[in-house]
Amino acid sequence: MARRSSSLLRPGLLIGLALLAVQFVAIVFAPWIAPFSPIEANPLDSLQPPNLVHWLGTDELGMDIFSRIVFATRVNLLIGFAAVALSLAIGVPVGVLVGYYRGLGGALVMRFFDFIQSFPVFVLGMALVAVLGQEIWSVVIVLCMLFVPMFARIVRAEVLSLRERPFIAAARCSGANDFAIMFRHILPNAMTPVIVQVSVSIGMAILLTAGLSFIGAGVRLPSPEWGLMVSSGAQQMILGIWWVALFPGLAIVFSVLSFALLSDEAQRLADTARRKEGAR
């Protein structure tokens, strides 16, 4: 009992959950937490350093940085969760099919994934933004195209190792068809590494969203987004105006850190479960 309680109180898990809880509070209660509008410019208050009125200062347009950071949590996490969810919905079934039906079709699908992943993410982002427009869902589509091959590869590798196990042979002997074998017997046993990868992918999505917005291929003004805020403040860093870029950058760090810590804990739990399964 003591060993189980100590495992639940690991510092990494507690810090990750605390940072994640802060983000969800910002998402839900943003209109009540933010003292100013995140998109309302006030040129008379431009580039004010942190003070009692504007706690984290203002940017070159006079918009309150703290309010924009709070509302940007909605945008960045929406993009991250939407991209990963869409990637799961596409990549997991494709990975199961390609892994179960080994043949020329599966090889062609994997080569197509190699072709997609060969594009630099920012080049792909700028190309799609030029076609689809500079909108939030354009960023989601870019990230989805990057994550679908990753999830498909993970699932395919698990399916290849599971499809010849004795319990699959038993399912065939009991009369189960291919669909039941793939999605009722194989897929539940192949989801552990996928669950671990989900947390990593959300953090990656937040970083990539910020990077795309930084180079002008992501979210556009006046929408609040962390990478866009860093981009607008980076030009003033050399002039000593540090607060415009620093605080959104810290928001990116803490958000990605929360998902990285949770991913480490999920990996640890998965390894523990596998050891117990092997001991049995």
CATH topology: MetI-like fold
- Number-wise, the strands total 0
- Give the helices and strands as they follow along the chain: HHHHHHHHHHH
Q: What is the count of DSSP helices, taking H or I runs of 4+ residues?
A: 11
Number of domains: 1
CATH architecture assignment name: Orthogonal Bundle
Q: Please report the first level of CATH classification, the CATH class.
A: Mainly Alpha
- Give the name of the CATH superfamily: MetI-like
Biggest beta sheet attributes? none
The rounded Rg comes to 22 Å
Structural class: mainly alpha
Quaternary assembly: single chain
Low-confidence blocks of residues: none
Mean model confidence by pLDDT:
86
Query: Which percent bin holds the helix content?
Result: over 70%
N-C termini distance: 21 Å
Protein name: Peptide/nickel transport system permease protein
Transmembrane segments: 12-34, 77-100, 112-130, 136-155, 194-217, 237-262
Main location: membrane
Subcellular location: Cell membrane
Describe the structure.
The chain crosses the membrane at residues 12-34, 77-100, 112-130, 136-155, 194-217, 237-262. One of its GO terms (biological process) is protein transport. Residues 73-263 form the ABC transmembrane type-1 domain. This protein has 280 residues and is mostly helical. It has one domain (27-34, 41-46, 54-273): MetI-like (MetI-like fold). Helix content is 75%, strand content 0%. It is built from eleven helices and no strands. It has helices at 2-8, 11-33, 65-100, 104-117, 121-132, 136-162, 166-173, 178-190, 192-214, 226-234, 243-279. The longest helix has 37 residues, at 243-279. The protein is elongated, with a radius of gyration of 22 Å.
